[in-house]
Design a protein that fits this description.
single chain; 219 residues; mainly alpha; Serine Threonine Protein Phosphatase 5, Tetratricopeptide repeat; two-stranded antiparallel ribbon; 2 strands; 70% helix; 2% strand; binds adenosine-5'-diphosphate; binds magnesium ion
Length: 219
């Protein structure tokens, strides 16, 4: 199996981010519908704007380090999107970029370490824990899957597959939760029966990353 040999270089991260931007484009109405059920209904357009900015910047740039790709994504969320979710997604990607440093090829332990640090920052800044019906409900199981696969010495491709599956389960787990964070907290029990928009975005982005890595592995 060549699977365990896969490492993610700057080009891979560029393709992964472009795939994530394309995936949220497809899901824009669904994401806004989820946000509208409990919030102001702008989430789809917000993430499309942030990742669309990253996609156009990355398409226009030459070879980049993995950290530089994620810094571009962070700028999209921090400068182009704004709001509570923009600041939180921005911190996630900025902390991950810092953790990558000048590493040229990311392996499973490096991905696990970066994601863990990023998720901890989101929880601290957002004052959120799992169960609050936010993006954290997808991010925390994703980071746990990253650490488990890295400890089991699986490759980064398998790691991304596990990260995506855990994020999706986490997003689905928010369906039965009342909202207690962000604007959605005013909706309270009205939120029960509808998945959290930010958690769903996390699942969509990580699924796009896993699919891109799987394609790359099949080359
Ligand atoms: P806004 O709430 O500013 O309109 P968005 O609609 O783009 O921003 O994003 C809403 C999403 O942000 C929610 O679905 C939730 O996942 C996430 N979110 C909001 N507040 C917090 C928080 N304090 N901690 C973690 N995630 C949060
Ligand atoms: Mg909103």
């Amino acid at each position: 199996m060549t699977h365990t040999a896969l490492l993610l270089d700057g080009r891979d991260w560029k393709h992964m981010i472009i795939a994530a931007a394309d995936a949220v484009d497809e899901a824009v109405n669904e994401l806004s519908r989820l946000d509208a059920a409990v919030g102001d209904g702008d989430h789809g357009v917000n993430v499309v704007t942030a990742l669309g900015y990253a996609r156009s910047e990355l398409c226009a740039s030459g070879d980049l380090l993995p950290a530089d790709v994620l810094k571009t994504v962070a700028r999209g969320f921090l400068d182009e999107m704004g709001g509570a979710a923009g600041a939180l997604f921005g911190s996630l990607f900025r902390v991950m970029a810092r953790s990558f440093g000048d590493t040229e090829q990311i392996d499973a332990p490096q991905l696990a370490e970066a994601l863990t640090g990023g998720v901890e920052t989101v929880m601290r800044r957002g004052q959120t824990i799992p169960g609050d019906k936010t993006m954290v409900d997808a991010l925390v199981p994703a980071a746990a899957a990253a650490n488990e696969t890295a400890e089991a010495q699986l490759g980064v491709g398998e790691s991304l597959t596990a990260i995506a599956a855990s994020a999706r389960l986490g997003a689905e787990s928010t369906i039965s939760m009342p909202a207690s964070r962000g604007r959605a907290k005013y909706a309270g029990d009205k939120a029960i029966g509808v998945a959290d928009a930010g958690a769903t975005t996390v699942a969509i982005v990580f699924e796009a990353w896993a699919a891109t890595a799987a394609e790359r592995n099949g080359e």
